[in-house]
Amino acid sequence: MLDDFMVRAALAGVGVALAAAPMGCFVVWRRMAYFGEATAHAAVLGVALALAFSLPILPAVIVAALAMSSAVTALRGRGYAMDTLLGVMAHSALAVGLVAVAMLSNVRLDLMAFLFGDILAVNRMDLATIWLGGLGVAGLILWRWSALILSTLNPDLARASGIDPRREEVWLTLALALMVAVAIKVVGVLLIAAMLVIPAAAARPLVRTPEAMAVTAAIIGALSALGGLYGAYWFDTPAGPSIVCCASLAFAATTVISGLIRR
Amino acid sequence: MTAPLISTENLSVRLGGRTVLHDVSVQISPKEIVTIVGPNGSGKSTFLRTLIGAQVPSSGRVTRADGLRIGYVPQKLAIDASLPMTVQRFLGLPKRISGAKARDVLDSAGAPGLENRQMSQLSGGQFQRVLLARALLEQPDLLLLDEATQGLDQPGSAAFYRQIEDVRHTLGCAVVMVSHDLHVVMAASDRVLCMNGHVCCQGAPEVVAEAPEYRALFGSGTQGALALYRHQHTHSHDHSHEHGHKH
Hints:
Chain A has helices spanning about 5-30, 35-50, 55-75, 80-105, 110-115, 125-145, 145-155, 155-160, 165-185, 190-205, 210-235, 240-260. Chain A is mainly α. Chain A has one domain (about 5-190): Orthogonal Bundle (ABC transporter involved in vitamin B12 uptake, BtuC). The relative contact order of chain A is 0.17. The longest helix of chain B has 18 residues, at about 155-170. Chain B starts with 5 loop residues before the first strand and ends in a 9-residue tail after the last helix. Chain A: Belongs to the ABC-3 integral membrane protein family. Chain A: This is High-affinity zinc uptake system membrane protein ZnuB.
C-alpha cells in the first residue's frame, strides 16, 4: 500500500494536518501567526547550514527554528512593536537563508521543494519522520493543554493556579520548532504558517469550546490535505499550495455560513 | 491574636529599574476585609501580584500560612474573540469540574445559570461574578481582588461589593482588595491600607480618612463620602428610617 506515491502523500498530508491543528489553535489564540512565519523562515537558514557543514537536515532545521524563536523572545519589548520585530526577523532569515544556499555552489538543491514542499516525493523515511514528529508535537500540546490555555488567558491567573506561564511558553516554542521541521517536506517553508492558522481560523465560527476548535481544525486540515492532493492530481497543480487553497475555501465557507446564521 | 494568613516583611519590588514598592510590611489576619487605596502607579497591583507569587520581590519576603488557599480575581481579563470559551470550561481551568460544582459556585458568586454561556457574551457585571466564582472554587482562606469593579457603574459595583460581603460571611475567608471606589470600599472594610510605593498609613477607615498622609494623596474631597457612610450606618443600626440628623 505504501508503494503508491499518492497513498504516501495522503498519509503525509493528513499527519501534518492532525499535528498542526492543536498547535494552530494556540497560534491563533496568542496572535502568533507572524511568529510562526518567522520560525518557519528560519528553517531555510537551517537547511543552508546543514548543507554547508554536511549535517543532517532535520536537527539543523529544529535548531535554526529554536534559535529564531529564542531571538525573538529575547528582543521582545526592546523598543520595537512585535510585528515590526517579526517582520525584520522573518524576512531577514528567509533572505539570508536563500543567499547562503546560493553561495553553496557545490551543492545542487531543489529550492522550490523547500519553499513550497514536495509532498508527492515523500518516501517511507519521510513518512516515519512526519508521523513520529507529528505525534511529538500533538502530544506536547495536549499534555500542556489546560495549563497553556490558562496562561494564554491571563498569566497572573495561571500563576495563582501554580502554573508558570513562561515555562508553558517554552513548551509551545519547542512544539512550534518541531512542527516546522515536520511540515517542511509537505507544504514547504512559505506555507507552514498557513497550515497552522487557516484550519484553526476556519474552525472558530463553528465551535463553543477550545477542545472543539482543535478537533474541528484537525478535521478541516485533514480534509484540506486530501482535497488538495486530489485537486493536484486531476488539475496538475502544485500539491502544497493546492492543500492551502482547500483550507482557504473551508475558511471562506465557515465565515460566510456563520455570517448568514447570525443575521 | 491569631496567626496571620499571609504576611510580608520589608518587601521591595523593582520593575524595569524603578522601585515600585519598598519596605512593605503587612499582615493579613483570618476573616478581615482589607482595602488597599492609592493613586495610579502606587504599586497596589504589584503588591497583590507579589502575594500570589506572580512577582518576585527584589528584597524582603512573603510568608504564607501552611496550606493557604488563595482565590485571585485579576484586574483585567480580555478574552480574545478567537478563543471560544464557555463559562463552565473557564471555571474548569486548569482542572475540569462537574456541572453541579459549576452551578454551585456560580450560585454563591451571584451569577446563577450562566454555565453554558460564552464568556465573550457576558455583561461586565456577569463577567466579574464569573471571575469571582472561579476564585471561590477551591474554598479560599484568602480572596484577593484587583480593582474588581473596574468598568461597572455605581449600582453595579455596589451590588458586587455586597456579594463580596456575602461570600465573606458564608466562606469566612479574608478579603484583600484594591479599589478606586473610595467611599463604597472604605465603608465595607475593617482596615484600609493607603499605599504609595510604601504603606503611607493604615488603620480603620475613619482613622485613615483623617490621616494627613491620606489627605495629602486624596485631598479632603472624600470626607463627604465617608461622612455620608457614617450617616447611613447610624440609620441601619437604629432601624429608624426617618432622616433625623442628630450627629
